[in-house]
Amino acid sequence: MGISPAVILYDANGQILVTNDGGDLRLGTISKVLNSSGSQVNPSTEDTLATRASESTLSTADGRLATIDAVLDSIKDTDGVKKITDQLPAGTNEIGAVAQGTRAAAASGWPLYIVDDVGNKVGVILDGSIYRLQSDAKIAKGASDLVHLDVIDTGTGRGRLEATLLTPAGDIVSFPSVSESIKNEFVEDSGDSSDLRVDGSTTPVVFEYTADATHDIALQEIKFTMAANSITFGTSYFGSVSGPLSNGLLVQAIVASGTVTLYNMVQNESFVNFASPGGFEWVVSSKDMMTSAYVIGGGLVLRAGTSDVVRVTVQDDLSSCGTYFRCFVKGNVAAD
Question: Do 329 and 183 fall within a single domain?
Answer without folding.
Answer: yes
